[in-house]
Amino acid sequence: MERKTIGCAPAVDLRRPTAPVCTIAAVAVALLIATTGCRGTRHGQVLTIDVPAPALQGSVFPNGARQPCLVYLPPSYEGTTGRYPVLYYLPGFTTSVDEYTDGSFDGFELGESMDLLIGSGVIREMIVVIPNGRNFLGGSFFANSPVTGDWEDFITKDVVRFIDENYRSLGRPEARAISGESMGGFGALTIAMKHSSIFRQVYALSPGIFAPGGLSECGMSTPDRIEARLTWQAMLDQLPQEEALARFRQHVADLYATGRRFPYHWAFGYAYGAAFAPDPQGKVPFSRFPWVRNGDRVQVDHEAYQLFENGFGGWEAKVAEHAASLKALDGIVIDYGRNDRLEWIPRGCVHLSEVMQAAGIPHELRAHDGGHIDRWRERMETQALPFVSDRFNSH
Questions:
Q1: Residue 296 in this model has a pLDDT that exceeds 80
Q2: Alpha carbon of 108 to those of 73, 103, 111, 148, 337: distances in Å?
Q3: Do 89 and 130 form a contact (C-beta atoms < 8 A)?
Q4: pTM for the whole thing?
Q5: According to the model, what pLDDT value does residue 8 have?
Q6: Which of 65, 84, 81, 63 is nearest to 73 (CA)?
Q7: Which are the contacts of 327, defined by CB distance < 8 A and separation ≥ 6?
Q8: H or E segment at 203?
Q9: For residues 132 and 111, what is the distance between their CA atoms, to the nearest angstrom?
Q10: Per-residue buried b or exposed e for 97-116, using 16+ beta carbons within 10 Å of the residue's own CB
Q11: Among 24, 2, 6, 25, which residue's Cα sits nearest to residue 15?
Q12: Which pLDDT tens digit goes with each residue over 63-87?
């Protein structure tokens, strides 16, 4: 792993090989866990709860009045009166909260990993909350949208309030951290950037981030996918709205019924547009698209294109607008794999780091030789969770 700390310590050149710190850390953690596991480990509780979601009501595409969340309560929670810091973890696109309990997500089981890391002394006791971020399109991007609902507000208002009112959280900003992977990594960065009065630490793993021009490099922009989207749009435009909506819903359901975990070129594009280029008064699927058909030609809709570009991008303006909030954070880490199959993500992560460095915002950029999520469990157990724990311990 290469690590670059900006604003806090001497920087390391990201493009130069360094010692395999991540491997050493992973081995050390594994040895600690193995040793402690042999002696027996105290167990916390993993609960699946439903959280009231008023922020998600009233959108064009309806959401449930209550949303599923996982809650991990540490071993000492039951039978004591102590209060605990809270890590909020945001899932990636299409990921449901139960995937963090059954080992289907890179072999990770929330309760098992937390119990062993706490029992081995790698991390302190804390509450972990994993809220739902998936809608019928596959993902919310944790953005506020009149089409898919106000998912940013769901996290910052509904979920945080519910946890503080129903569990023994410390209930103050320095005792809250936010993290996530991919779509959730983007959401964690965006929410922390805007809401330092709620969260004080952020650790983003493989976050969806565009460098300038990133839209042209991602899977939504290939000619065949543009053509397919426009063909479907033309068909929907010919139907009465109710029929078009029914056909669209069935179309999305069919995409997921194929069993493909990540139908990027279809469902991702619909979800992304609904989050960042919503058009609630328009035609199904109620979002703008960067390309339009004009006779036999496909042309760029420049306004819609900029909305798409600024969804995962536009960091110069975002950082400038929220610089004071970013500087109020106690810790910012962007963690990515050099071999991410989504090649625009490493470029985007480096770009955001450069933008924050220019703005004088302390942060860390951590790179490893893995891909998008193939080392996710390792990164969580050896990097993200220890980082958050250390920050909690400093207060």
A1: yes
A2: 17, 5, 9, 29, 18
A3: yes
A4: 0.91
A5: 42
A6: 84
A7: 360, 361, 362
A8: strand 201-205
A9: 18
A10: bebbbeeebbebbbbbbbbb
A11: 2
A12: 999 999 999 999 999 989 999 999 9
Q: What is the dihedral of CA 210, 214, 219, 222, to 10 degrees?
A: 170
CA distances from 289 to 121, 224, 269, 294, 300 (A): 50, 15, 9, 14, 9
One-letter identity of residue 28: A
- Count CB atoms within 10 A of the CB of residue 171: 16
| Length of the chain counted residue by residue | 395
**Pick from 309, 269, 93: which is nearest to 181 by CA?**
93
Are residues 383 and 366 in contact, defined by beta-carbon separation less than 8 angstroms? yes
Q: Enumerate domains of the chain plus CATH numbers.
A: 2-212+313-393 (3.40.50.1820), 216-310 (no CATH)
Q: Terminal CA-to-CA distance of the chain, rounded, Å? A: 28
C-beta of residue 181 within 8 angstroms of C-beta of residue 334: no
Dihedral angle over CA of 14, 210, 203, 83, nearest 10 = 170
In this structure, what token pair is assigned to residue 30?
A: 């594994």
Instruction: List Cβ neighbours of 42 (8 Å cut-off, separation of 6 or more).
Output: 75, 76, 115, 118, 119
pLDDT per residue as tens digits for the range 199-256: 999 999 999 999 999 999 998 998 988 998 999 999 999 999 999 999 999 988 888 8
Q: Which helix (H) or strand (E) holds 232?
A: helix 223-237
